[in-house]
Structure formats: structure tokens, C-alpha cells
Amino acid sequence: MSERNGRTANVDDAHFTDTAALDLSKITPPRDEDEFAHLRGTSAEEDVTFTKAERKFIRRRSLSLLWRASAGVRGKLLLTAIAVVVSQGAQAATPFIAGGLAIDWGLPRLMDGDSAGLWVPALLYLLCAVTAGVLLYWYTRMTAEASQAMLYKLRDEVFRKTQALSLDFHEDYTSGKVISRQTSDLEALRELLDGGVNQLVQGLMFMLFTTIYIWISDFRSGLVLLAAVVPIIFLGRWYQKNAEVAYRRTRISSARMIVHFVESMTGIRAVQAFRREDARSRQYRKLAKIYRDDMVRSIGLFGVLQPGLMLIGNLAVAAVLLWGGFRVLEGDLGAGLLLGIVLATKRVFQPLDMIAMFYNSLQSATAALEKVSGLLEETPKVRQVKSPQRLEDCAGDIEFTDAEFKYSDDGPVVMKQLDLHIPAGQTVAVVGRTGAGKSTLVKLLARFYDVTSGSLTLDGVELRELSEDDHHRHVAMVTQEAFLFSGSIRENIALSRPEATEDEIIAAAKAVGAHEFIMGLPEGYDTDVNKRGGRISAGQRQLVSFARAFLADPAVLILDEATSSLDLPSEQLVQQGLERLLGNRTALIIAHRLSTVSIADRVLVIDEGQVVEDGSPQELIDAGGYFSKLHSAWSATMGN
Prior knowledge:
The protein is α/β, with parallel strands linked by helices.
């Protein structure tokens, strides 16, 4: 293994993120007035009804996100807009070529023996059809590329953002909700961008050009179209008002259902061990029923919109045909032109069906975009300073000075005015009852959280002022849950140092006693551990995570109940590795076992966020306090 001071660890790879490349200013909308502070981030997650001003703020935030996501493809979108204008203009001309031109102009000439009456309308019709088809193909392909580019950016930003957020976010914002943002919400947006926008643009352009042709050909028929617009506007406003609430409900109920599913599958061992399958299924059916009812309600609204638009369109066609028929009889309108106007009027309302489908997708996507934009607006509570201090070489000297901490602004103080100095190279065991503050102490040092007041320094440098790379290089933590990523044993050990050589990886495994069981696996270090390390035991997974931490070669090593999953033979191997490898490091070990405490230079007893006993193991045993009683209990269980 390389010496701690002789190399530089790859921190970004170790944490599967690249915060240097994460520029959220390009995707996160600017902050608004303080009156909307409660809507920032995900605080409005469960809200359904908002005031008019709140809806406006949320909509502006969502559109701002969509606008930023379109950066880089706006030129392509402009070209496709030109293409769709030309294609729909050509397509809208075909009824008038088939009606007014072919019948009123071409048919008399054809009867007089002039073949131009046949081929001129035919060629014009063919030219318009080919132009519309070619441009429509190009437009569809280009918009698909642009929409996928936008979705790619959003997916990437959601993933980067959720990794960059502090631990408190992930403790409050369940993994199921994060999955919902990345899957169902972005899928709703994909449906809108891939299909809905195409339908809207094509439909609107076709309606526009067809209406223009009708007005140019016969403005009195155009008045009928104008009259039909009034009920369409009222119907659209009614749908928008009701669908906005309905689709927001579907996004919330969908997220709740996904959260329950993810929790049940993640905790499947506990579910089956305690025979909770029926209870979890009943709860899931209840959530699925709520989602079903919300979807039925939203689809029911669309069931009113779509037939309503079709009814208005058919009534308009009937009015044009009836009025135009009387005018043909009076000689005020040509029969061919009437045919063209009737065909055009019927076709002008056909896109309303597509527009209704788009509006349906829009409401769903808007509700989803609200959730995504809220997530991307979250800010880490553990923030990096603009000009951090560097700490190239670290001895591992730790000092808490009048440090206090609470998990939320209105929550209780869980660490009270802590003054604690841990010299470099010292191994410290931290003991205490459950909830006493042991994990809080090490999480502050690992900088999952920042102290609320006071200071915490590493080699005299305040952690909040220390560069993120240097902190991650000098401080490593092994938790009780030994999480392994899908991949080989080798890849999981090298997670902390991807550039490590084969010999260094093997040396780290040997140091913690993992080499022997690894070599006994089917493919040795190339064995795929499968999801969450399902192919190897809990103790073996913990040994792999130990090897990962030792390979990082940090100045400070934190073990948060990290030996709790080990059986006695494995623990003995780990103890030997710890004794060899902790000699020149500062180590904090949350210990529930006597064997772990025995290798410590010093023991801290924590109670209610304060150090109530501090000294060497033997000193505290002799003192007859909490640790002495705990030691006696440990000894009794070991048969000593």
C-alpha cells in the first residue's frame, strides 16, 4: 500500500460524482421573493392547491428550467419551426387545389379539351403533398433529437443534483421520491416533448393556414370559424383550471406508490421475515387505488374536452355547409369552392383532437416539471466556500471547540458545547447508549453535517473552510451498512482509489483479512458481488468495505459500528488488520464490542451529546463509571 503522504486520492471517483463539473446555475432558476420561500425546493411536495401568485411562481420556475434545458438546441428548434410552417402551409392548400382549382377552374377547361385543367391541379397537389411529407419527416426527426438532448440534460442534472445534496436531504427525501423524479416525472416530460409538441405545432400551423385560406377564399365562411372559437376558449379554460389540480394529484399519488414499492422491495428480507407481505400488499393496493382514482378523474376531464371540441367542430362544418349550400343555389358561391371550404373546415377542426391530446400531456408534464424543478432548486446545507483552504499533508489532529449541533433550525440541540481534542495518530473508541450522540460526532467529522456553532478543525483548518477534495482524501468512513455496488470485488475495493494497482488492492484485502475468502470465490477478485453484495455474506461485505477504506490510506479513519456484522473468526482477522494499519492514523471507532475497545488508546463515553468520561480503557475501568459497568457486562458475556 502506498504511503499516505506520497499520493493523491481521486475523491470524485471515490464518491461517484464530479461536483466540479456540476454547474447548477445553468439549470436552476433564479431565486424569487421571500414570500415564496415556502415553495422553494421540495417543501411544496404534498401541496395540491395554491394561490394564483403561487401558481404563477411555480409555473415560472418550471418554464425557466425548460428554457435552460433547451440551451444548445434552440437553433435546431428554430429550423424545425420553419420547416413545419412550410409543410403545414403546403398541406393546408390541398383542399383548395382539389376543390376550387380542380373543379371551378380545371373542370371547365378539361371539358373544353384543355388538358391543363387536369395536369396543373394534379401537379400542384403532388408538389404540396411531397413538400409537406419530406419536411414533416425532417421536422419529426429533428424535434426528436432536440427533445432527447433536453431530456438527457435533465436526467443528468437530476442525478448530479441528488448526489451533490447533503445527507439531511436524503434522510428527509425518500429514495422512492428521487426515483419518481428520475423515472415517471421525466417520462411524462418525454411524452410531451417527443409527441405532444409535434402534435401541437403541426395542429396549430395547419389550423392557421387553413383558416387563412378560408378567409382569403370566402371571408363569410371565415365568420363561422370565428364564432366557433368562442366556445372553444371557454371549454379550454375550464379544462385548464380543473386539470391543473387533477394532474398534480396524480404526480403526488404516483410518487407515494413508488415510494411504498421501493421501500417494500428494499426491505424485502424484513417483510418476509416478519410475514408482512399481506399488510404491505394492502397498503400498496390502497395507494394504487388512490392513484387509479386520480388518473380516472384526470382522464374524465379529458373525456369532456375531446368530445366537446369534436362537437364544436362538427357544428361548424354543418353551419358552413348549410349556409354555403344556399349561397351556391343563389349563384353567390361556386360549387367547387364550397367543396374546398367544407373540406378545409372539417380539416381545420381535426387538429383539435391532437391539441386536446397535447393539452392532456401538457398538464401531466407541467405537474411533473414542478417536482423536477423543485428538486433541482434544493441547495446542500453542507456548502463549499468559494476560496477553500488546501491541506496537502495531514497529520490527523482533530479539535472540537465549543461545538454545538442540531439537525434542524427548530430542532433540539443534540451536541452541546463540545470541547474535544484528539491528537494525531490516536485511536479513540466512542461508546455510549443508543441515541447518545456517537454517530452525530463522527458524521460531523465526516462532514455529512456542519456544526451549528463553534468550530471543528483538522490540523488547525476549519472543516467548513477546507477544500472538499482534501477533506475526502484525508478522512474516510466505514459505516455499519457495507454497501457494495454492482461489479467485481476488485472494482468495489478500488472504489476509493481507481488508479490503484493489482498489488495494492490485494495488499489492502490481505491487511483486513479479506484475501482468503475472496480467493475462495468462483472468480476471485473478478467475482461479481451482484446487487448490494447479495452473493456474499454480511461479514464478507464488511471486510470488502474495510479494504476499500484502507486502500484510500486516509489520515483519519472513522469506523461507525463497522464490526457489528462480523462473526468471531472474521472479527479476529479484522482486529489484526486494525492493529497493524491504525498505528500511524487518527481513528475514531464507535464500538459495541469489547474487542474493538481493547485496541484503543483512549475511550470517550458520550451521553446527551457531551463527553461524560474520557481516558484510557484501564483508567475508565478503574474509575467505576459507565464504561466500567459496560466493560463488566462485556466481560460477563465473553465468559471472563
